[in-house]
Amino acid sequence: MKNKELADIFDRWADILEFMGDNPYHVRAYRNAARLIRDLSEDIEILAKEGRLTSLPGIGQRLQAKILEFLRTGKISEFEKLKHQVPDTIFTLLDIPGVGPKTVKVLYEKLGIRSLEDLKRAIERGELLKLPGFGAKKVEKIRKGIELLEKSSGRILLGVAVFIADRIVNQLKELPAVERISVCGSTRRMKETVGDIDILATGKNEEIIKAFVNLPNVKEVLWQGTKKASVIVEEGEQVDLRVIEKDSYGAALQYFTGSKAHNIHLRTLALKSGYKLNEYGLFKGDTLIAGKSEEEIYKSLGMDTPPPEIRENTGEIEAALNHSLPKLVDYTDIKGDLHVHSNWSDGASTIEEIALKAIEMGYEYVAITDHSKSLKVAGGLSEEEFLKRNEEIDKLNEKFKGKIKILKGIEVDILPDGSLDLSDEILSQLDFVVAAIHSRFTQDNTERILKAMENPYVNAIAHPTGRIIGQRDGYPLDLETLFKKAAETSTALEINAYYNRLDLRDSHCRLAQEFGVHFVISTDSHHVDHMWMVKLGVGTARRGWVQKKSVLNAHPLRTLLRFVKEKRMKFGVK
DNA sequence: GCCGTTTTCGGCCCGACTGTTTTCAGTCG
């Protein structure tokens, strides 16, 4: 799949044009194309073959020609010429907060600055102050921006953002001064990584701001005004709070939730209908039409309210206008976790502790899925040990009868040849079997997984692509073949909710659902304190337009067990 | 560079904030 490579080229292309001072709409066309291609769930090569490139919104004749040239030759000649005109170290300068293309251009042309090191040296020597339009404050802002950039590791994992945002919202909502409060931005959209954390509130603004900057976990106050403030929390992440008038709360929530592409589309629609939409409300002339709630705004524009997770301008606005939005799986739908490790293998919690946590979370069932023997580093269990562990589960099921059903599970290793490292005899005695790959992360593993799916006892493939966010790309896979086989063999695909996995990712979910794939949303917890992460998985599923009916563990135990039984019957085993 | 139920040319989302300005440019979300 060449989608990412191509998206990177278009992004860099936009950077170069921006730096060269090209028409901003020209730049935006490349930026949009990059984003579109990066988020595409289908292989761009297949789209090209089928002649569907120009049916993508934002791809016209000229971009199509460039894409085709890239697919044919691996290069785009126009880009090859262009990129040699600008030193590529210069683009790190654009990552400095407060520094944009115009500033970089001046720095480069007047002082020959082409890297972060150059810039730091020039600031020390006081050279920037001599430039027109550069005063002491601006230089100080750049200096602080560099500091911030070097400190931050880039984007925050969603799990970390949700954890911090929930904590702050819970602390603040207890205050009498706070009327309403909500997280917004990409955290609310449950995007797998988040730039900074945005929180929106309404109420007595000065009291709220004061409480916010004085929260116990705040390490540093970056900026504080009467309507907004920015802080760094002890985890090192930036959190912004805005306080808004209550009549505009819905409009502000809509606006600050984004995405940017969704908002641009929405405002264009508003404009065509003779309205103006901004963060204060929907206006006809100077008259406020709607603003108290998001629903009010969308309704006034003749549409249903798209769930925040799908506001990415990938068809949700059209669906909202047609009143055909999908009914997405909800956070409260999950009836049990189907991937949890106990201290029989490499988990830290006992089976009893896991059961108690599952009861606390309101689950109907939970599957204990310890590792199998070949995974020695993770304390994988032998066949005898599994049988002993199962006896303990039987006892606990007696004890917790009527409160929770503990399922005998396993995360069985898929060996390099696609076979499993436990006998069918043992597997047949388990309630739910999850199979996964834990080795050879660079080779194409399609055949290996297809073969595992052919085993009648394998009910789900755990973390199907093997990616770790920000650390390791998934191994190469033919996703469409995989999805087809999963649907055929009644093998579910896991949406692993552990915070650095989220695998399948959102775009894969959307494509898989079209193939009729069933999903399980599970946490891969190794401690009961990880089990809350299920909501990260549900958020990912929702971003992939996944409906409740496609998610096995959004249904009662008997539905789950029927799915297991159906596969065994399909393959003629008991 | 894209796009069209007012347009195949002339638009392209909108406002806040900051810093340098004396009317505005740059950056951000």
CATH architecture of the largest domain: Alpha-Beta Barrel
| Distance between the ends | 40 Å
How many DSSP E strands? Answer: 17
Strand order of the largest sheet: 11-12-13-14-15-16-17
Q: What is CATH's topology name of the largest domain?
A: TIM Barrel
**Helix percentage:** 40-55%
CATH superfamily of the largest domain, by name, is Metal-dependent hydrolases
Protein name: DNA polymerase beta
Cofactor: Mg(2+)
GO molecular function: class I DNA-(apurinic or apyrimidinic site) endonuclease activity; DNA binding; DNA-directed DNA polymerase activity; phosphoric ester hydrolase activity; zinc ion binding
EC number: 2.7.7.7, 4.2.99.18
Structure description:
- With 574 residues, the chain is an alpha/beta fold.
- It folds into four domains: 1-152, DNA polymerase beta, N-terminal domain-like (DNA polymerase, domain 1); 156-243, Beta Polymerase, domain 2 (2-Layer Sandwich), CATH 3.30.460.10; 248-322, 2-Layer Sandwich (Beta Polymerase, domain 3), CATH 3.30.210.10; 336-571, Metal-dependent hydrolases (TIM Barrel, Alpha-Beta Barrel).
- Helix content is 42%, strand content 15%.
- Strand 11, helix 16 (351-360) and strand 12 form a beta-alpha-beta unit.
- The model has no long low-confidence stretch (mean pLDDT 91).
- The structure holds one DNA strand of 29 nucleotides.
